[in-house]
Each structure stands twice: as structure tokens, then as C-alpha cells.
Amino acid sequence: MKPTFDGSADPTKNAPFKLVNVRSSRMAGVVLLVLSLKVGTVHAQVPAVIADAKPEPVVALAAPLKGQGIGEAMMPVRPVARSEKLPRTRWQHMPGNAIWTRAALAALKDYGSPLVEMVPRDIENWCPAYATNTDSDRRAFWVGYLSALAKFESTYKPWAVGGGGKWYGLLQILPATARGYKCNVGTGEALKNGAANLSCGVRIMAYTVKRDGVIHGRDSKWRGVSADWGPMRSEAKRRDMSNWLRKQNYCKLRSSTRPRARP
User: Fold this and answer.
1) Which residue intervals define the domain Transglycosylase SLT in the entry (predicted)?
2) Number of structural domains found in the chain
3) Between 214 and which of 224, 237, 253, 261 could a Cys-Cys bridge form, CB atoms 3.0 to 4.6 Å apart?
4) What span, in angstroms and rounded, lies between the C-alpha atoms of 30 and 25?
5) Region of residue 207 (left: phi > 0; alpha: psi -120 to 50; beta: else)
6) 3-state DSSP assignment of residue 121
7) Do 20 and 131 reside in the same domain of the chain?
8) For residues 171, 176, 180 and 185, what is the CA-based torsion angle, rounded to 10 degrees?
9) Whole-angstrom Cα distance, residue 11 to residue 13?
């Protein structure tokens, strides 16, 4: 029997050509079924995968500042440790003492530098190691000296007012004197700021000690620091100040004996 294409013949007795088409159709159906099952499986698994997924922790990064690279912005922010060791002073028991010390050190690095650069003629009475000291230790001496003077001027009280309203602050500075030396503060209230008062004191001493070449002296008039500060005119108070200063590490002479290097 010849194959026909009108569907009138018995399909079970179709020629091989028709049989092949049927088998091909069945194979195509199987392939489609398998593909649909696989696709269905994938679609079925996707929600499960998403459901089981655990979110990664979100790390917030600071936006880089203007002029700052992304790498710099991603660096952890930590406070910068201060590397400078503060010298020993007589006001260390007072609140705000570290600010006072840093203000005095800053002034000595600036307009107070003449004090650090020179060696007063009477320095042996105050600080035997001063002449051979580094600039850092010389500044330490002057801060210690300011604190020793403040003991007798104000007993370390920045709010102190003496002389019936004439002198103010840690070093009891007259406002007119502060203005005369072009300090940044020129009123009594402003001189009650401990840091500002000490900065002004450094400015005054940088002029008078350099001018006279001594910390304390007297000929026809008072010289050095004694020209402006009353406690320096008392032998007992000067002795108290110098005795304390000479005991500090920045004023002690270093031993010339050193261990020999091993061969």
C-alpha cells in the first residue's frame, strides 16, 4: 500500500515515511517534556535558593572628602596619638594644666624662641644642664619656671585678681603691660584665661631676659624677669623656685660616665 497524506489510511499500516514522522514527533515531544521539566525544576529551585540566601553584612564607608582619595576614605578612623611628652610642672594638680603647658610650649616655639636660643648669664643658679640641653629640654625648663613663678603669683589660680583689681591670672599681669608688649589679650577678663596669660608672660620674658641677659639681676634697677614680677625680688622665693627646678630631669647634669662598648 502506497503512503497517502490525506489521513484516510490506517495509521498502523502507514508506510515507513509516515512512521518516521510519528516517531520524530514523539521524540520531539519527549525532548520538549524533558526541557519543560528541567525548566520547571530550575524555576522551582530559584525561590528556594533566594529564600535560603543569607545577606552579607553591609559595611558603611565614609564618602571621600574633597581632595581625598577613595583609598584614604576607606581607611579606619583613629585618633592621632600625641607624641610630645609634657614636661613636669608645679601646676600638674590643677584642672586644665595640660592646656597651659601646651600653650606655653607653643609660645616658646614662636615669639618666645629668643629665650630658647640664648643662655642667660645666671642660668647655673636655675638649671645647671641648660647650656648643653636640647631645644626641647630648654623649653621644658622655661615651662617649669613659669609654673614655679605661678606658685607665688596666683597659687596656680587662673581666675586670681590681685592688687585691688590691677593684676590678673596665673602670672598676675597688668592689662596695660599686656597691651604694651602687644599680647593677644589686653583686658583683665581675657588674662584670666590660663593659656593666654602664659603666652603673654612668655612674650614679656622673651624681651626682658634677652635685653638684660639674665633671669634675675639688679643694678640701678631690677633686671630680667625681676623687672616685672615681684616674687623674683624675694631671695626666699627665688631659692624655693630654683631648688625645685634643679631637681627636675631637664635641669640635671647628665653623668659623663658611660658603659664601654663591647668589642
Assistant:
1) 136-211
2) 2
3) 224
4) 9
5) alpha
6) coil
7) no
8) 60
9) 5
